[in-house]
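U., I forgot to send this yesterday:
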Amino acid sequence: MSDRMTETPDLASLDRNASDSAYMTAGIARLQTGLAFDDPADASSYRVLLRRLYAAGRFDLPLGRLFEGHIDALQIINRYGDSAAAAALHAAAHHGACFGVWNAPLAGEALTLAHDRLDGGKAFASGAGLLSHALVSAEVPDSDAKQLLVVDLARTPPILDTDWWQVLGMQRSHTHLVRWNDAPLSDHDIRIGQPGDYEREPWLSAGALRFVAVHAGGIAGLFDGVRRHLVTRGRDDDPHQAARLGRLYGLADGAAAMVDRTAARLYESDADHHPALVANARSAVLDAGEQALTLAQQCVGLSAFFETDPLCRHMADLMVYLRQPAPDAQRVKTGAAAAAGHIELSL
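Result:
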């Protein structure tokens, strides 16, 4: 494995004051350096990717969110697209194109693809206005399943509703509502695979380990910010603060270990059990993140709520990004698999 793949990318030199588009494009380009865009063949290759995602989340959660979507889109294209389309789109990514996956339905305005025209919209479209390409799922005639389509956003641009994303954190992820109004496809918009490919397991559920790695990185970034705050203000020698910081370290370390252990188990177990293993990781890292946020506020106090403090922004980003769909369903999935003996404890 090359040094370019295994080294940690230099994110500290990114210009955070650049425009969001320039900043995210530069960050994604740096994070993807040396990576392949196929499904990792073994645990070692997967760990390389997860460490990049972890590093992104530790540095900046909105960047981590967009990088995760970029990788997700390119892996799906490789998995289900024809070889010529995958090669062309991967080459575009290597030359600065940024991708994302827009799957969440827009209530009452389902995205449809018929007669080479797009109509309807998507919600939670992260990177809207920043990305060059979006992999969307659309309803098609004569099928109950959705068709994947790579949309060249410069040639088939949606209408953006940027007023909707009024949330506490993750503003820089540009997660908006998007709509197309009977828009004709261009020659650069490419169908990927067959209807129903996006929902195929274990990839749909087990692929969530990518964003769990970003979450774990976000918890590590929270630890970094709290430690910096305490040391800078000379409060690190307070035994109560040291105890809190020790607990915070343990939570961050445990989250990272959970991601690493789960990645290994995916290559040691039956694919049918991968969704339950990743569901367990999702739940464990969510719990760690929520506890870490409480500890961080206890450590830092009122200072954590000043919007001018970078720690305040990171806390807000983590609060929002931890809110992924159906957390209770993940625990049910894990419990059912454990009850059936499909997943077991080990060391």
